Amino acid sequence: MTRTRTRITPPRNTPTPITVVTQDGVSRTQILLWFVLVGFAWLGLGAIVFNGVWPVDDRPKQIVLVGVSVIVGMLTYVPMEYYFRARGLAMRGVLGLFLTVQIVLYVPTPTNSLLWVPDVPVYLLVSMALYWVLSTLCVPLTYIIGQMVFRQRARRYDVRRAWRQASEIGLTVVGLFGLFGLRALTPLLIIPWILMIVIAEVLFLSFFEPPATR
User: Fold this and answer.
1) pTM of the model
2) What is the mean pLDDT of each run of 10 residues along the chain (214 residues)?
3) Are 82 and 137 in contact (CB under 8 A)?
4) Are 189 and 179 in contact (CB under 8 A)?
5) Positive or negative torsion for Cα 108, 113, 115, 116
6) Which pLDDT does position 18 carry in this prediction?
7) Domain locations in the chain?
8) Cα 53 to the chain's mean position, in Å?
9) By three-state DSSP, how is residue 24 classified?
């Protein structure tokens, strides 16, 4: 009598598909109205900050200006965070805009290079503000470009890809600003820096798969 041995294979844990962003319930008309409203808000804030419409030597007016910058930031970034379901986008964008306004109004322009120790905090503040503002404002841009460039649905609707590429744009500008601070903003250094960011993104796209859709 022969005995047969039955081999039991444990079930494999298949990864659960990750739902990517969807735009259900948001019409193009609502997006257009939001875009127009945000555009006027930024124009008003720019007029206050850059054209001297509002003096900044009065304490109550300073508080009002802080409130205006926060309101404009929330009006811009809170709908973006809801639309793209990108957690943390609103906080980073509002802080970046607030910091940018404060730097433009109150921080003196550095007169020496980045190697001059007293000017290092100014360069760091400007770099932080540039990165936060650009990496949040460019999320819709990179998302829309991905919609037009990629054919794979998971890649097109991947918010993490849009966020990463927007962060790379911010990092590129911050790097160029650092070269400017070092008085080394020359094509010999600009081109390798941009190529390094582009190659890093190509590697990300090659070795990291987008989340599955369902």
Assistant:
1) 0.75
2) 51 44 65 88 84 64 82 90 84 90 82 85 90 90 85 78 91 93 89 93 82 56
3) no
4) yes
5) negative
6) 39
7) 27-106, 112-214
8) 29
9) coil
Amino acid code (one letter) for 23: Q
**Token pair belonging to 189:** 């250094």
CB 210 within 8 A of CB 152: yes
What pLDDT score was predicted for residue 7? 52
Measure the CA–CA gap between 133 and 45, rounded to whole angstroms: 15
- Of residues 119, 80, 120, the one with CA closest to residue 96: 80
CA 27 to chain centre: 23
Query: Per the structure block, which two tokens stand in for 148?
Result: 């037009």
Which sign, positive or negative, has the C-alpha torsion 60, 91, 130, 72? negative
Report the C-alpha gap between 203 and 214 in whole angstroms. Answer: 26
- Distance between CA atoms of residues 190 and 3, nearest Å: 73
Give the model's pLDDT for residue 116: 86
**Interatomic CA distance for residues 147 and 24, integer angstroms:** 16
Residues 23 and 148: their CA atoms lie apart, in Å, by: 16
Query: How many angstroms separate the CA atoms of 105 and 96, rounded?
Result: 14
Taking the C-alpha atoms of residue 100 and residue 96, their distance in angstroms, rounded to an integer, is 6
CA–CA gap between residue 113 and residue 120 (Å, rounded)? 8
What length is written for the chain? 214
